[in-house]
Automatic annotation (TrEMBL):
One GO CC term, this protein: cytoplasm
Catalytic activity: guanosine(10) in tRNA + S-adenosyl-L-methionine = N(2)-methylguanosine(10) in tRNA + S-adenosyl-L-homocysteine + H(+)
Protein name: tRNA (guanine(10)-N(2))-methyltransferase TRMT11
Organism in which the protein naturally occurs: Aptenodytes forsteri (Emperor penguin)
Family (UniProt): Belongs to the class I-like SAM-binding methyltransferase superfamily. TRM11 methyltransferase family.
Amino acid sequence: EITSLLSLYDGQFSGEQEIRVNSPFWILNIPSEEMARGLMKRTVCAKSIFELWGHGRSAGELCASLKNYPMEKMLPYLQSDSTYKVHIHTFNKTLTQAQKIKKIDALEFLPFKGKVSLKNPEHIFWILEDYGMDPNNVPEEPFHLYFGRWVHGQRELIESYSVKKRHFIGNTSMDACLSFIMANHGRVKPNDVVYDPFVGTGGLLISSAHFGAYVCGTDIDYNTIHGLGKASRKNQKWRGPDENIRANLRQYGLEKYYLDALVSDSSRPIWRKGMLFDAIITDPPYGIREATRRTGSQKETVKSAERSTENHIFVSSNYHLSDIFFDLLKFAAEYLVMGGRLVYWLPIYRPEYTEEIIPRHPCLKLISNCEQMLSSHTSRRLITMEKVKEFKDQDQNSYLLDGQYMPYRGHNSFREKYFSGVTKRIAKEEKDNQK
């Protein structure tokens, strides 16, 4: 997420930081404080950002680094008519109050002229200490120390967009935190057009609209698109007349960014030719809580026939996971603008996972591949791809020639593998209870 946002705000990791990427504290080069604040208004993974005044591997190195920091950059925040306070944050270690005061007193050589205000200071400074990532092997002295001026912190997005408070939800509405991470991976910006081919209740549209993008989507489920049928909330039997995607966007003051949601099958082409979307951000069904299906004909093997409250009838057939993802990549290759991004979740059976099974397309470059654990044996990977090559007709079925297509076929049985672990766990619990 941070890497994607840095590319949006003309920033980068410092050369030194690349060596210590596992540290909880990262050193970034960002052109201005305004851009740093812009980054922090979007991220949900970072907690705070600081203007770094000094750092080192020991207290002595930190002091030397602070003495070398340009005085003209310090002075605006140390004036006699200002107020300030100093925080200490230690990662992987707890200090006593006396230890904290001792460390703050060691910075008395800094020319602070203002008054200390613990409740409402104008300027806040932080000492950050990194004691490593191993809670069972905490060193006496920190591996690295930092001192800087607090610039911005942002964690309100997750709470203000919580699914618990959302008007219209479904069985698989995306968590607000994850939907914002996906929008950041997609580098969504104002006036972009963002599309979700498995839109459901529109949770992913909300995060993109929050960042100023115009949003639209499609879904095969007529009832969900129109807000009909049984409710997903506890103690609520049926959805109300105003429960729909538009109402969700209206709830957050984002209705002006809503283009539309269409009842459509993602496996069937409905769009005119051309590069239409700046980003495609989606969470395809895995076949666990929501069925994987596509429209079929009466001649095909009928999986189910459903009738909605609006007397809308459709016939659906099996839609294998491998086909879902390769159709998605093919669609993104054709309809994304150059440099546009595809962001989606890929379910994985962990004992069989290798990077080779990530679906590929010659027009799309893999940018990132992050894991979210679902259980001991299953997870899902957040895949981000960027369009780097113009789509040509010969790219239409290029994936069929790719040796990676066959290994991913194994994921058509993801549902069975997912529940096999659940069945084994239940059997083990029953066996333990009998003992």
